[in-house]
Specification:
The protein is of the alpha/beta class. It has two domains: 215 residues, 3-Layer(aba) Sandwich (Rossmann fold), CATH 3.40.50.300; 215 residues, 3-Layer(aba) Sandwich (Rossmann fold). A nine-stranded mixed sheet has the order 15-13-16-18-27-26-25-22-23. It is globular. The two termini are 21 Å apart.
Length: 515
């Protein structure tokens, strides 16, 4: 039997679509339904690797986690990873397809091969699950892209999904956003919208009642719920917009600076650090703002070459080198950040930079990275700490899990030591070294994402940073997955309390929850 469907679209990006779908995944999963999230096309640099090595948006992985099912490539058949200059890498069914400019993407891919792939993925999910919960992208009323948009009304229409439209009141103009969106939709698409949900409301509901009635009168659509702003949610963000909402820790013991590269990716690596009381994670994008942090992290990037050039032109490269050599500040590079810490990045075929180039790295690690082919490593890994030194020595022998998403091959010189040993690649046993430290053990480079998800490694890292300044750090929250689980439960309960779920079930074509 083909699955039931429900689609959540928004009046803008970052209005709450992702978390509302995650909440619905948890609610309907708890009610006994086998649910799958789905997003036809996502543009995000925060990605996740499935068990079989497919790359999808982190948001759909979170939604699958909320629905207690394993993430799969079909849940996000098209992932666009911006590289700059109006160009994105197309990840199609979990694998790198090719780089395309925006005009070429819409002209030659989106409505042909891309749309065929979207329908195939959806049909597979619909044959395996009871309910497919679909997330739209951006706004369905982008009139400049309306005819080529495959992620919103084209999807809803093709699969017969009723649509709930969500808007963020915290940013202002919520009624204009909802009415304006409805006015810009084609009449047949307006009919697909079955109700509104207003998100992130901070006031008393009575203040909205007059506006809600007028909104319903103007559009003929019911308001199904007003969700309150939920402070302190620690669920991972989808894109760099969420970095604007990073709030400083009260009376921080530790100050960690993450370099906000122009094409920063997988910054969810650092969410576990922000879980810890007393840890301030700052995203820094100029040399003047770096200060004297307790540690500096170079994160992943979608374009190592261009972001390395930016790092030098911004003055941050010189400051990072100075902090490492003069202050002995611990430096961690993950993925593209690891490549930047080396002596050189060689891109003779222009895979990263668009033209043949060789860029000098920061020289803090004796490694050289080469981009020799348009190929990407994507896999889940299990690993063991084998490195010594003040950062890793305390957890030597500790096992942990993570994932790799990178292009390029890194060659090691003589002045580095191994940091980790891979013990499993996907489901296959393995035994090979990965990542390096400098001779002091204070500069670490690795391709493994999710390092701080492991409580022992996070604890050792923060304990050492505290000891350098004569402080004692002993407040650890433990597993990030347990923290996400708690927040998903909180989110789902909030939605159940403030959204007319009986009406939602009626719209979907399911009996009331518990009925």
């Amino acid at each position: 039997m083909k699955a039931k469907t429900l689609m959540v679209q928004g009046t803008s990006s970052h209005c709450g679509k992702t978390l509302l779908v995650a909440a619905f995944c948890r609610i309907f999963s708890d009610a006994g339904y086998r649910v799958a999230p789905f997003k036809a096309q996502n543009m995000s640099l925060n990605s996740f690797v499935t068990e079989d090595g497919a790359e999808i948006a982190r948001a759909q992985a979170l939604q699958a986690f909320a629905g207690e099912v394993k993430p799969s490539a079909d849940m996000n058949p098209i992932l666009l990873k911006p590289k700059g200059d109006m160009t994105s890498q197309i990840v199609f069914h979990g694998k790198p397809y090719r780089d395309m400019g925006v005009e070429e993407y819409y002209r030659d891919f989106a409505l042909t091969k891309g749309w065929e792939g979207v329908q195939a993925s959806f049909n597979r999910l619909a044959s395996e699950y009871d309910l497919v919960l679909i997330e739209g992208a951006g706004s369905p009323a982008e009139i400049n892209l309306y005819e080529v948009d495959i992620a919103n009304m084209r999807t809803a229409e093709a699969v017969g999904a009723p649509v709930l439209l969500v808007a963020d009141i915290d940013r202002g103009g919520v009624f204009a956003n909802l009415v304006g969106t409805m006015e810009l939709l084609k009449p047949r698409h307006r009919k697909l919208v079955r109700g509104f949900i207003i998100n992130k409301f901070r006031g008393h509901l009575s203040l909205l009642e007059k506006g809600l009635k007028q909104l319903e009168a103007l559009t003929g659509k019911p308001v199904l719920g007003v969700l309150p702003y939920i402070p302190g949610l620690l669920l991972p963000g989808e894109d760099s917009v969420s970095l604007e909402e990073t709030r400083p820790s009260a009376s921080p013991v530790l100050d960690i600076a993450v370099i906000r590269l122009p094409r920063i990716s997988n910054f969810t690596d650092f969410d576990p650090l922000q879980l810890e009381p007393g840890v301030q994670v700052r995203y820094v994008e100029c040399a003047e703002a770096l200060g004297k942090p307790d540690a500096i992290i170079l994160p992943g990037t979608k374009n190592t070459v261009q972001d390395l050039l930016w790092l030098r032109s911004s003055g941050l490269a010189a400051e990072i080198i100075r902090r490492a050599l003069e202050d002995h500040t611990p430096i961690l590079g993950i993925c593209g950040g690891y490549q930047m810490l080396g002596k050189r990045v060689v891109d003779e075929k222009g895979i990263e930079g668009g033209s043949s180039t060789c860029v000098e790295g920061l020289g803090l690690l004796d490694v050289v990275t080469e981009f020799g082919a348009y190929a990407k490593t994507t896999r889940q890994v299990s690993a063991q700490v084998v490195g010594d030194g003040p950062l890793l020595g305390a957890v030597k022998g500790e096992s942990f899990s993570g994932y790799e998403i990178h292009m390029g091959t890194t060659h090691l010189g003589k002045d580095v030591q191994p940091a980790f040993r891979i013990t499993r690649l996907g489901k296959k046993p393995a035994r090979r070294l990965e990542g390096v430290t400098d001779r002091r053990g204070l500069v670490i480079g690795t391709y493994i994402h999710g390092l701080f998800d492991a409580p022992p490694i996070r604890k050792a890292f923060l304990t050492y940073l505290s000891s350098r300044k004569g402080a004692v750090f002993n407040r650890f929250r433990g597993s990030v997955w347990k923290a996400w689980q708690r927040d998903l439960e909180k989110l789902a309960q909030t939605v159940k309390n403030h959204v007319d779920m009986d009406k939602v079930c009626e719209i979907v074509g399911l009996p009331p929850l518990g009925g």
